[in-house]
Specification:
mainly alpha; 128 residues; 6% strand; two-stranded parallel sheet; 2 strands
């Protein structure tokens, strides 16, 4: 289960999302801070202004706080989580929730060697 976090909008739901995932059978969880690369930023801000006008300023201020004053930080390792006090607070809450619910923060590596292409109609090579 991966949960996106929107600062000032969905961050208060973090523990409830983890609990719902665990109740539904999830054994691991991860989170991603809202990312607004390129044209997505303008689209998001338009949506936010229309649907959450009272929170729009707070959401964008928190987001920029975690991304060095920008809507998006392209640096690897920073763009998914952000940095600073607020980002660390979210990370601490996430770790505590995972620990309390028995969710792992990391899953085992994917096994790509188990993949097989599905047979196609008329595929005679599958006979050999």
């Amino acid at each position: 289960m991966t949960s996106p976090v929107v600062p000032g909008l969905t961050d208060h739901e973090l523990e409830a999302l983890l609990a719902a995932g665990a109740e539904a059978g999830a054994d691991a969880a991860s989170w991603i801070m809202l990312r607004l690369p390129r044209e997505v930023s303008e689209l998001w801000q338009d949506w936010l202004a229309e649907h959450e006008p009272g929170r729009a300023t707070k959401v964008m201020a928190r987001l920029r706080e975690m991304h060095g004053g920008r809507d998006y930080d392209p640096r690897w390792g920073h763009r998914m989580r952000g940095e600073g006090q607020y980002a660390e607070l979210i990370a601490q809450r996430f770790r505590a929730g995972c620990k309390r619910l028995g969710l792992q923060e990391r899953t085992e590596a994917l096994r790509c060697d188990l993949f097989a292409c599905p047979p196609q109609a008329g595929n005679q090579l599958a006979l050999y």
